[in-house]
């Protein structure tokens, strides 16, 4: 299903939950709605489902306006954060319910339910009641129930929020495979960036009711449109005065410009590791955290604290050690604009083109 | 106590009418209660208002007064009901008001997500109420409904005031015949207690069985 949203707006009393949100979703894509809690993600999802009415704006499925359509007429499947399984029904009956409502033949219902039971790995659990299942199993039943009537759009509200970390990891991969197999347009809400990056084809970053940016995880990481996106996707350190960074004195154009610096933008080490010392600044190692495959290093440079990674292959550093720090690039922003700037000092003035 | 033994068949007949009035009134009370509960939750402002006033009046006035209004009061408007019919009407209307509050609470206790999940699965409002909400609400309501039923069993004694020969009225007739009070009143007290205990046990078993579902 092709989904389009135009100028969606929603208030809850005085609270402006969704502010003029517009986007398009191509058929068959898996989209992550990512943002902090209370940002309006679930409100958008519920409006798409028809469980909430927008104050303004249009929702279009296949170019048809569906604002006035009830949830049962929208052809959607919804997976709730709390699963919302029908507690008085078995796994089989939960999955079959949407099909019974459509008055399908018993044989057809059975065939479809067993197909979904197989697909979701619930074989052998058909006669169990929800309270007899684990969190992960309940979640799978919720997926199966949502998929049973063959909806054109699958909506998932924080589908892994109530599940412990290990099973959550397994379910993520499973969901990605399942949706690829079924080929259904899907939108899921999450506040976990790792989850969104791992599962989604595209991510929409929602903050304080606004759509900050939409794009692939890599696009958002590489070219964030706003400081919020830059800080929300991936790790980064905020530097209040970009001019304090070696090489960015001119680029930042004054005191009001701030910088976000990702760990991979920074290179650290003893003097011997740098060919171009003039581009580096002196720093001190404040903390070292062993991360299994690398070191996470916190460095203090000119009163600023920066975080970066260091390979295990390189010479070990020690807390308190004086080192050199090279900031390759920074995400700069002020009131007027935001941009990614390369460190101009990196250009070797004596380089010769042969 | 021999007098009680000798007149046991007569007292059993009274007990039969007690049970009959209780069961019939409870049956119609359940229907009234359910309709009123849904009216209070889903109706428009007028319907909600009517339902609220009905519950308020019934809960705010004594049952005996309600029985007299139905049996004696309606005669003024040309509607004469037999004692048993009047008992059914008065008790059904009374218990319906109490049960409506039980059902309303039970329906409201079902998480909103259940309704939304039903809508998302393709159900209409009425299908959702009938197939998702009410079956779950019934489990919540079973205990208070049981209490209402046992309360009703004892309150049927009030219909003796309009000459329905239920258990209390049977005892009163025997007292008038033999001029002894205590044996007959103790006898019917034991019979009320036995009936209450038996129904309590049945309801507890039903409640246990249903609560296993979650």
In short:
Chain A: The complex is composed of two ATP-binding proteins (OpuCA), two transmembrane proteins (OpuCB and OpuCD) and a solute-binding protein (OpuCC). Chain A has eight helices and 19 strands. Chain A is of the alpha+beta class.
Write a structural description.
Chain A: It catalyses: a quaternary ammonium(out) + ATP + H2O = a quaternary ammonium(in) + ADP + phosphate + H(+). Chain A: This is Carnitine transport ATP-binding protein OpuCA. Chain A: InterPro entries: AAA+_ATPase, ABC_SmlMolc_Importer, ABC_transporter-like_ATP-bd, ABC_transporter-like_CS, Mo/tungstate-bd_C_term_dom, P-loop_NTPase, Sulph_transpt1, Transp-assoc_OB_typ2. Chain A has helices at residues 41-49, 91-101, 106-119, 135-147, 165-182, 193-199, 217-222, 227-232; strands at 3-12, 15-25, 30-34, 56-61, 64-65, 76-79, 153-157, 185-190, 202-207, 210-215, 237-239, 258-261, 266-269, 281-290, 294-301, 304-311, 322-327, 329-333, 338-342. Chain A has 354 residues and is α+β, with helices and mostly antiparallel strands. Chain A folds into two domains: 3-231, P-loop containing nucleotide triphosphate hydrolases (Rossmann fold, 3-Layer(aba) Sandwich); 235-346, Nucleic acid-binding proteins (OB fold (Dihydrolipoamide Acetyltransferase, E2P), Beta Barrel). Mean pLDDT of chain A is 86; it is low at 350-354. Chain B has 214 residues and is mostly helical. Chain B has a domain at 19-165: MetI-like (MetI-like fold, Orthogonal Bundle). Chain B is flat and about 70 Å long. Classes of the chains: A alpha+beta (354), B mainly alpha (214). The A-B interface holds A 49-51, 70-72, 76-78, 80, 82, 84-88, 97-98, 101-102, 129, 131, 145-146, 149 and B 111, 113-114, 116-124, 127, 132, 135-136, 139, 213-214.
